[in-house]
């Protein structure tokens, strides 16, 4: 009796963290690795939007991460042709997370990574939620720390590159050196 109750309690407690039917996505992280340029060849951590957007059904081994122009992606993009079938890197601000996601979706993007506009943010993940417009988006939307987004954009500017090459999502449990592959600024 008591052992069975203990086992049942433990099972319920564990499943509270892992049960998709409960919709708990608060502690869910998604990882991607920059393959090029080499100076930012790290594994980055992002968080999926809480209540809008799609999920990654495909793993992209080499896909372009294209910084949107303009960076906030609240309207027509100057480089929308480069975002088609790729992933856009967008900056927070100017309009809702959902609006940005829809702009990237309308330009044919496979997903959007929205970096915080606080460039010194190296630890606080913001929960991206639906706006009041009742619209939807089908592509995955991820939130990236401001420091990470800034360092990716800065590296691309320094190298004169229009995009980074990334793998997404990356299963970090299969990478024994994951800690060593994180950006060095995450430890500051």
UniProtKB/TrEMBL annotation:
Q: Where is the PA domain?
A: 65-149
Query: What InterPro entries does the database record attribute to this sequence?
Result: PA_dom_sf, PA_domain, PRADC1-like_PA
Give the keywords, sorted: Glycoprotein, Secreted, Signal
Gene Ontology cellular component annotations, sorted alphabetically:
extracellular region
Tell me which positions the record assigns to the signal sequence: 1-23
| Places the protein is found | Secreted
Give the chief site where it resides: secreted
Specify whether Signal is a keyword of the entry. yes
Task: Please report a single Pfam family linked to this protein.
Answer: PA
Its annotated function is as follows: Plays a role in the modulation of physical activity and adiposity.
In Swiss-Prot or TrEMBL terms, this protein is called Protease-associated domain-containing protein 1
Q: Which organism is it from?
A: Setophaga kirtlandii
